[in-house]
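Example (one chain per record):
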Amino acid sequence: MKRGPSAFNIASVVAGLAFLHLPIVLLVVYSFNASRLVTVWGGFSTKWYGALLRDDQLLAAIWVTLRVGLISASLATVLGTLAAVALVRSGRFKGRLLFSGMIYAPLVMPEVILGLSLLLLFVAFGLPRGFWTVTVSHATVTLCYVTVVVQARLISFDKALEEAARDLGCTPLKAFFAVTLPNIAPAVAAAWMLAFTLSLDDLVIASFTSGPGATTLPMRIYSQVRLGVSPEINAVSTLLVGLVATGVIAAYLFQNRRRGRDA
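Predicted structure:
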């Protein structure tokens, strides 16, 4: 007879989840606080969201962050998927160890070292720091995460399906796009979402590689928080939480719908 989880296990899980998510809940609640003091409740109000819409610096930072995230996540997803295919399908080719080491290095490398090395690279090539240097840096860092996610799916993928398409006359490239890619699409979408979220969250690497006119939202929030937390920060953080949560829910519903259709 199987026993259910003990009261201690349940309490531990509840305490852990509360420790992780209660601060986020408080942030969302206090974004609707009428008082300017973020720790004193002054009644319900949405005026800080209106103030956010009038803050040109924050809006510019949000726009830069979204553009950097969309472009860098898309670039990292394409390159990471190709890298995963090479690692899974190409066997033990010459230079595989060096190639895989270069792909996975950002996973264990401190962000300060990555940011500094990318800065030195851009300076060595004489590239002005700005929007594109931040975008390339984020794509470089998030590529390894995409590779790990897609590689895990490719390892469990039944290669016989692709071989059957080849037997029916498909070229290797057409078989990949017609058979393999649709089957690994949920993993590719999850990898893109992970890369996009990591780009939204990054502060250290953007601080090294950004320039005039390329201030991201984490950089703007950090510079303002050093002078004191304002209710506008709570409002923009709540919008970010909502954006990420919407993306996660949409990905979950997409995967469930795909599983139901395949079943």
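Caption: The chain is about 80% helix and 0% strand.
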